[in-house]
Automatic annotation (TrEMBL):
Key words, A-Z: Plasmid
Domain of life: Bacteria
Protein name per the record: YdaS antitoxin of YdaST toxin-antitoxin system
Gene3D superfamilies on file: lambda repressor-like DNA-binding domains
GO terms of molecular function: DNA binding
Amino acid sequence: MTQAEHIISRFGTISALARKLGHKHPTTVQGWKERGWVPADQQPLVLKVGADLEPPLTPQDFFEGAREQAAGNGLRRSASNEARA
């Protein structure tokens, strides 16, 4: 799961997050999902609208998604790399 997918999942859907952000159309949030991350300049607003979630959205949520993305992309050391180390 990418960072953007993790954040979007906390709101339920792309449309739900877009509505919370005051967007008439979900295309901006869809773009985040396609790219895999929420732009840094948008993160404070996403945190603000996510304060009402249960549990509230925190900065850690942005890192959780990034960690999951890194693990899924094989950025952790594989067993074959560890054997060579």
